[in-house]
Design goal:
heterodimer, A: alpha/beta, Rossmann fold, six-stranded mixed beta sheet, four-stranded antiparallel beta sheet, 9 helices, B: mainly beta, nine-stranded mixed beta sheet, globular
């Protein structure tokens, strides 16, 4: 049997008694890049939140196996320590802790090693340069007053500092202009080189031009209804979901 | 105040002894016209006011049996930047503090005052305070009060200010300690374009009972008031919050806003919020908003998704809710004292 980093098996998830994921299967191997596309309301963000362990999302059937372990019951912080990272579609604003303090605390708890101030600052500075983020953001309160684009960059900054095994990018490209998408894509490519697996949830193709995904999945009504290569994403870009919807409703 | 709400029926004052510790701390040099002295009988006329504060019993007791406090008079156009600090660190030998304070800011003057009430966890202490402020035309009084007495303490604090035209009184109140705490702030916006801000935070933990009442009375036209309160309740703590905006006849074009936001960390807490808006004048604007809810689950999730455990994440979310108020305190060392105390009560307890 092949070894998967992430193995989702017949997953059903409800939120406030409404079933959103209705038997989803997905397998991701180390170093692979997968893309999930789908119309609004198909369950894309639910999948992202469920993988990260949001307490409002209840798994009613099936399981999520990550790095050889069933993680259904794990809290978000345990999952983070196991190597799952979620780049949020809408990152939260937390006044009171600066980006630098927060990331140092976060890195310390994920690695279990105290992060020394000076080397950490150097690392942070380098990563921020890569992302074209002004240094001053390091001493600003986490996401407070950041523009939509800066919030997204800050998510990618966190990803590149925390070096996860699986990075889930939930609509990371929305709200970014073309140049910013390119910069973000470069950072994602870098962690991909470190054998990180990537799950991209997106509406658009822009990010995919850079990322060269191994698989593209179409999520509809809580299930993956079609899997293919990057050509599938191109097809949707051109003609939308209508054909697939029709195909799917005939089943 | 309706003390029955927090279950204080037959309160008896202990015998008041001298408060022997030095509490006036002044760094830097003030102009010699600025007079800061221990409170004395010579100023009694300024306390001849109708003000029941946390209760008539408490204010009349403070008027008569005070054992500490200051009288501060700022001459015209005198502005002092360095704060006047009053540090009341109560201990075994000084377990009862009845402080009576008078601040008179003459026309165009400005002053910053910090009053810090502190005691060791184990010692049973009683604090009953009365502070009266007169801000004359164009004067500004910024006053920060921090109540961080230990859990065996009781605290009662009554504050009143009279603000003349273009004058300003800015209160910051930080309520972190005592098992019973009553705190009352009343500001009369007497003059035209007078203003007052009251920013406060409170933290209830253990079995703390808090009764907070903030009142803004608009008399002068174009007067402006703003009450902003952020609270957190945990364990079995109880709180009553009363925010009153009162627009008297003649206060046309005035505006008052009050806002209270409280996070309830445990289902065992009790939180009452009673906002009141009284209007004798038509052409005024009064707004109030109150909300009480559990900790923002999405914020918590965001922090936990970065590997921070639940306790640490909760602490950060709570601190984040206090932060906008604490950032208004322009003294770093005080911010640190406050956050240390919040952290101690949230995490170490």
């Amino acid at each position: 049997m092949e070894k998967y980093l992430l193995n989702i098996n017949d997953l059903k998830v409800t939120i406030e008694d409404k079933e959103i994921l209705k038997g989803l299967n997905l397998q991701i191997k180390e170093g692979e890049t997968h893309v999930i596309m789908g119309p609004n309301g198909s369950g894309k963000s639910t999948l992202a939140y469920t993988l990260m362990g949001h307490p409002s999302y209840e798994i009613t059937q099936g399981g999520i196996q990550f790095d050889g372990e069933i993680i259904n019951e794990m809290k978000a912080d345990e999952r983070a320590r196991k190597g799952i990272f979620l780049s949020f579609q809408y990152p939260e604003e937390i006044p009171g802790i600066t980006v630098e303090e927060f990331l140092r605390t976060s890195k310390t708890s994920i690695t279990g090693e105290m992060q020394k101030i000076i080397p950490f600052r150097r690392l942070l500075k380098t990563k921020m340069e890569h992302l074209g983020m002004d240094e001053s953001y390091a001493s600003r309160y986490l996401n407070l007053g950041f523009s939509g684009g800066e919030k997204k960059k800050n998510e990618i900054l966190q990803m590149s500092i925390l070096e996860p095994k699986l990075a889930i990018l939930d609509e990371t490209d929305s709200g970014l202009d073309v140049d910013a998408i390119k910069i973000v894509a470069e950072s994602v490519m870098k962690i991909k080189d470190e054998k990180c697996s990537i799950l991209v949830i997106t509406h658009y193709n822009k990010l995919l031009e850079y990322l060269e995904p191994d698989y593209v999945h179409i999520l509809m009504d809580g299930k993956i209804v079609k899997t293919g290569g990057v050509e599938l994403a191109n097809q949707i870009d051109e003609i939308g979901y209508e054909n697939i919807k029709a195909e799917f409703s005939n089943i | 105040m309706l003390w029955k709400r927090i279950g204080l029926k037959d309160f008896e004052f202990p015998k008041v002894h001298d408060y022997k510790k030095d509490y006036i701390k002044i760094e830097g040099k003030f102009p010699k016209e600025v007079k800061i002295n221990r409170i004395s009988e010579s100023e009694n006329k300024y306390f001849d006011i109708e003000f029941s504060g946390v209760g008539d019993k408490f204010t009349s007791f403070a008027k008569k049996y005070y054992n500490a406090g200051i009288q501060l008079r700022l001459p015209r156009n005198t502005k002092i930047v360095e704060p006047v600090k009053l540090e009341f660190h109560m201990d075994e030998n000084n377990p009862t503090l009845v402080d009576k304070n008078l601040i008179i800011a003459e026309e165009g003057s400005e002053v910053n005052i910090i009053m810090d009430y502190y005691s060791n966890e184990k010692i049973e202490t009683l604090h009953n305070g009365l502070t009266v402020i007169y801000a004359k035309e164009n004067a500004t009084v910024n006053i920060i009060k921090i109540q961080r007495l230990g859990d065996s303490s009781q605290s009662f604090d009554s504050n009143i200010a009279y603000v003349e035209g273009n004058g300003k009184v800015n209160w910051i109140s930080v309520e972190l300690g005592s098992y019973i705490s009553g705190s009352n702030y009343r500001t009369y916006l007497d003059g035209e374009a007078s203003g007052s801000n009251l920013s406060s935070i409170y933290l209830g933990d253990g079995i703390r009972k808090m009764d907070l009442e903030y009142t803004m009375i608009h008399k002068g036209p174009r007067s402006i008031s703003n009450i902003e309160t952020k609270g957190v309740l945990k364990d079995n703590s109880k709180k009553v919050f009363r925010g009153n905006l009162d627009f008297k006849r003649g206060s046309r074009h005035s505006k008052g806003v009050e806002e209270e936001y409280v996070i309830l960390l445990d289902p065992t807490v009790k939180s009452d919020s009673i906002p009141a808006l009284l209007c004798d004048e038509d052409d005024v604007e009064g707004e109030h908003a109150a909300s009480a809810g559990q900790i923002d689950e999405n914020k918590l999730f965001y922090l936990m998704s970065r590997g921070l455990d639940e306790r640490e994440s909760k602490k950060l979310v709570v601190e984040a809710s206090f932060r906008p108020i604490i950032d208004r305190i322009p003294y770093k060392y005080l911010q640190e004292i406050i956050f240390d105390e919040i952290e101690r009560r949230l995490i170490d307890a």
